[in-house]
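Appendix C reproduces, verbatim, an entry submitted by the partner laboratory led by Prof. M.T., so that reviewers can inspect both the input and the predicted structure.
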Amino acid sequence: MNIVVRTYAGFEEILKQEIEKITNSSITIQKRAVTLEGDMKDIYKINIWSRLAIDVLVEISNFRVFNEKQLYSNVYKINWPKYMGINDTFSVSSIVYSRFFSHSKYVALKTKDAIADCFRDKYSIRPNVERNNPDFNFVIKISEKDASVLWNTSGNALFKRGYRKENVLAPLNEILAAGILKLISWDKKTPLIDPMCGGGTFLCEAAMISSNFAPGLLRKKFGFEKSNFFKEKEFQDVVNLAKAKFNPSNCCNLYGYDIDKEAISISKNNLNNISSELKVDFLEKDFFILDKQIENGILLFNPPYDQRIQKDDIIAFYNDIGSRLKHFWENYEAWIISANLKALKRIGLKPKKKITLFNGPLECRLANFPLYKGSSREKLLKQ
């Protein structure tokens, strides 16, 4: 099978590394995705273990197409009963970058019609289209003249881990949080502090990473489970091995603080929904009066952008963050992600590194600030 694993912009290289480790296969990087050749067991493993994948797709067919008639014809002649049954529900999404097709929703509609008509002509009955929770999700992708039809083996997006039963305002996406932990090269041992933790996503993902908890273990359903290719025993073997690798004793030195009492309660509940054996210290505290309890470590936080969460004076707020970092958190390393690029510059510290990422549609910067006692020049001269 030709497998396509999708992710977010900026995560392609770290996804490649992750999928290589999971499958021991040769991986090719594409835009916001990687591809590999594999089998159903690889699909099970990626869905269970990947922290960076949005979904795992299998290419069903590819062809050249110039108009809607050719699109319909090529989709219709696929052997659809090989993939789904007449009583199964399905949905189709589309990705279109082509001068020959100007409306992506129309492309999806023609694809749905071709699938349904294939069943109607063979069995005199059409399967039902279901938008919210279908048995099968298909994707039609057209890039200029090249079209491919893909089956989404994940079903719902994999960032829906299953541990977030409650949400704070503007929660951080789980894949984004896991990817950032990889990008900052956190070693799973260095103390990690989120001083504005909100719903605790950074620390929940860090707890899973350090304890080797496979994120797919919390899922109730995968898209491949109703497939004719599904092998229950082989899948259960993958699940049981993942459960055996969980080691909660390795989860330590994780600290979350927030000024909002309800956010701390939600963070604790989210962590407990993963496993009651995981250990993270969540406390109701204000970052601007918070003193460090440990000599050194990593500060990682996602402050308000002044969009979904409003601030009276966002520039002054970021300036105060920088001042607090400079005067109270020496010997730490700070990483801040923000979509408010103007406010981020008012931190008042020179970033050692900046990485462009996207939080949903918002373009962000992940900025790294090493925090020295005295100036960075004085620190370098002492080395």
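The first strand starts at residue 2 and ends at 6. Additional entries are available on request from the coordinating office.
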